[in-house]
Amino acid sequence: MSLGPQPPAATFAPPHNARGEPLNPWMVAVTVALTTFMEVLDISIANVALRHIAGDLGAGEDEATWVLTSYMVANAIVLPISGWMSSLLGRRRFYMLCVTLFTASSLLCGLAPNLFMLIVFRTLQGMGGGGLQPSSQAILSDTFPPAQRGMAFAVYGLTTVLAPAIGPTVGGWITDSFNWRWIFLINVPVGFVSLYFTSRLVFDPPQFTAQRLAQKARGFKVDYLGFVLLTLGFGALQIFLDKGQQEDWFDSHFIVTLAAISSTALLLLPWWELRQKDPMVDIRLLRDKNFLFSNILMFLLGFVLFGSTVLLPLLVQTLMGYSAMDAGMLLSPGGIAVLCFMPFIGMLVNRVDVRHMITFGVLTNALALFLLSRTDLQADYASLATLRVIQGVGLGFLFVPLNTIAFANIPMAKSSNASAIINLSRNLGGSFGISLMQTWLTQGTQRHQVDLVAHVTAFSSRTQDTLNTLAQSLMAQGVTTGEALTKAQAVLMQSLQQQAASLAFLDNFRLLAFLFLAFIPLVYVMKKPARHR
Q1: pLDDT band at 1 (very low <50, low <70, confident <90, very high)
Q2: Residues 526, 532, 533, CA angle at the centre, nearest 5°?
Q3: How far is the C-alpha of 302 from the C-alpha of 423, rounded, in Å?
Q4: CA 20 to 30 Å from 237, out of 21, 385, 476, 504?
């Protein structure tokens, strides 16, 4: 069932200010992209500073992880209701409210006197940030005519794909060069600049305003139960994903309780929302086949993007001796590739079947991930960075066409609701990707270690030869015979553990590659959108 195509010529109105003067859409694009970039950057930038935060505030590292979890939970709750909030308050007003809250809470985070207050302020920051992503995408979608919408999504893609790639690098540099508090304080001047230009350049389109006023005139009913179900469902799910590995998953009563709450609430949510005139989440938009499958593929994109962004730095830091800064620099070439290719991809969208572009992006990503699964611990920086560049190009060919085909049949008045849903899909995919990659890495390391240990026995001539070689090398350095044998056994065990971990990393990269390929049939279930000239 389709929502019906939106006739571009009849419905699109170029952006104007309050006095009716035309606005440059590119100025609007830069304005909304700036703050959204900082918000997405904030998701990953704090990861590398956790140790510094814990040490400075006198807390344990496990406690400090709530700095990340609190942000993601608040983000996950506000993000899906941002379309409803835009309808209630007006998109421009809601966007400016989110920028204000994000900026003020960033300042408070930078000044937080203890961990508890930092977590409280991070929760507020997550609430402000949760409305920025979908609002900015909806603003971009409505600012550019259909023929240029690919370029609009390319601008948005720069914020959501580039920011996670350079976040660890920026966070590491700020923390090492200044202080962890500056990872929050840098948001403040950006927020003020964004508020100034938003007040002058961003205005709600006439179609959106007309629908909002009509909705208000007939009586705007607050969907309280929908909000409760959404808060419990997505809030508990985010904590479940963030803390699952740390709490040993379903061996923990805490995790089991979260799973029960989340699954119950999320099962009831669609049933309830489909019966509401003014639902918190407009699930009816998923009746459009293009939008439905675009959300599935966007979930997969988030899964692979964030999952691989966690795996690669962890691999080079734990097994190859990279510093946090060097690991971040390894991701940066992929971000630069996105920056260079996004405008080109935006121009191609209206010239090439976007389904072919999505397939190319899937194949390119799968190739890069498969080649990563064939590397070893002797791989140099250039080789790994090149593979990250290939993956970055593939991500660009996924993000822009996916958003284009997703919004092809969405009426302009519904763009805020649609943007909230598709951003939720990407963020949930990222949360699942990060959580499952860490779990599969731990389990894979244990499995490979058991397999390898089975071949290291006292009756193996190869094992004995290796131990003798190590012992002789140690004795040549002045170690006594008895100590040399003990240390040789420790060195062999350490090497075995390192090899097991390396194999687990490669398994995960291979799994991500095959997961991508399995979803190619979904691309051609979607209908080819009409081209606009």
Answers
A1: very low
A2: 155
A3: 10
A4: 504
Q: Pick the residue with more confidence: 264 or 331?
A: 264
pLDDT per position as a tens digit, 75-86: 888 888 888 888
Three-class secondary structure of residue 196 per DSSP? helix
Please answer whether residues 6 and 410 qualify as being in contact, where contact means their C-beta atoms are separated by less than 8 angstroms. yes
Contacts 24+ apart (CB under 8 A), 116-121: 118/53, 118/57, 118/67, 119/66, 119/67, 119/70, 120/70
DSSP label at 320?
S
| 307-340 burial code (b ≥16 CB/10 A, e <16) | bbbbbbbbbbbeebebebbbbbbbbbbbbbbbbe
The pLDDT confidence band at residue 117, using thresholds 50, 70 and 90, is: very high
User: Residues 433, 306: contact at Cβ < 8 Å?
Assistant: yes
In the CATH scheme, what is the homologous superfamily, with its name and number, of domain 8-221+277-446+505-523?
MFS general substrate transporter like domains (1.20.1250.20)
pLDDT at 8 over 80: no
Q: Which of 457, 485, 489, 459 is nearest to 471 (CA)?
A: 485
297-331 pLDDT, tens digit each: 999 888 988 888 788 888 887 888 887 677 777 87
Residue length, the chain? 533
Residue 359 has what pLDDT? 92
Residue 457: pLDDT above 70?
A: no
**Tokens for 96?**
């400016």
HEC profile for 161-186? Answer: HHHHHHHHHHHHHHHHHCCCCHHHHC
Higher local confidence (pLDDT), 526 or 495: 526
Amino acid present at 443 = Q
Residue scoring higher pLDDT (266 or 454) = 266
Predicted confidence at residue 465, as pLDDT, reads 65
Taking alpha carbons only, the member of 61, 178, 75, 76 closest to residue 115 is 61
Are 325 and 171 a contacting pair, CB within 8 Å? no
DSSP code per residue over 281-313: S-GGGGGSHHHHHHHHHHHHHHHHHHHHHHHHH
Distance (Å) of CA 134 to CA 22, 40, 59, 435: 24, 12, 34, 23
Tell me 276's DSSP state: -
Domain positions in the chain are: 8-221+277-446+505-523, 222-276
Whether pLDDT at 530 is above 80: no
Place of tokens 């304005």: 31
Mean pLDDT of 475-497: 71
